[in-house]
């Protein structure tokens, strides 16, 4: 399963946002990889791997898993939500 997402995080996936993203990926029930289009995938749960992408705000990234089940879809949904927030260091507002 694969999904292309635009990074909305203001700072991109650098420093603190990269660490928070990797922590979120590590908490998923499936292994997720991330890459820039045309690039090599890295483990999304690796802060160093995420930092090496050099993903800035507005860049596209591709999230992928080896599975096509509900756990994989949920993991990609969660990480897509993270990347879609301009400031992931602030808690998400509760769903209405």
What fold name stands as the CATH topology? Histidine-containing Protein, Chain: A
Number of strands: 4
Question: How many domains is the backbone divided into?
Answer: 1
Average of pLDDT:
93
The Rg value, from CA coordinates, equals: 12 Å
For the termini, the CA-CA separation is 29 Å
Shape descriptor reads globular
CATH class placement: Alpha Beta
Q: Tell me roughly what share of residues is in helical segments.
A: 25-40%
Instruction: Write the CATH homologous superfamily.
Output: HPr-like
Count every helix, treating DSSP H or I runs of 4 or more residues as helices. Answer: 3
User: How would a crystallographer describe the biggest sheet?
Assistant: 4 strands, antiparallel
Strand order of the biggest β-sheet: 1-4-2-3
> Which architecture would the CATH scheme give at its second level?
2-Layer Sandwich
H/E element sequence: EHEEHEH
Which structural class is indicated by helix and strand composition? alpha+beta
Instruction: List low-confidence stretches.
Output: none
Give a description of the structure.
The chain has 96 residues and is of the alpha+beta class. It is built from 3 helices and 4 strands. A 4-stranded antiparallel β-sheet has the order 1-4-2-3, covered by helices on one side. β2 (33-35) and β3 form a beta hairpin. The termini are far apart.
């Amino acid at each position: 399963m694969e999904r292309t997402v635009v990074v909305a995080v203001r700072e991109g996936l650098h420093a603190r946002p990269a660490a928070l993203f990797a922590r979120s990926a590590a908490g998923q029930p499936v292994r997720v990889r991330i890459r820039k289009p045309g690039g090599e995938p890295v483990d999304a749960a690796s802060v160093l791997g995420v930092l090496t992408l050099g993903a800035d705000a507005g860049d596209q990234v591709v999230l992928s898993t080896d599975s096509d089940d509900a756990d994989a879809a949920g993991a990609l949904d969660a990480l897509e939500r993270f990347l879609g927030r301009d400031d992931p260091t602030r808690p998400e507002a509760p769903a209405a």
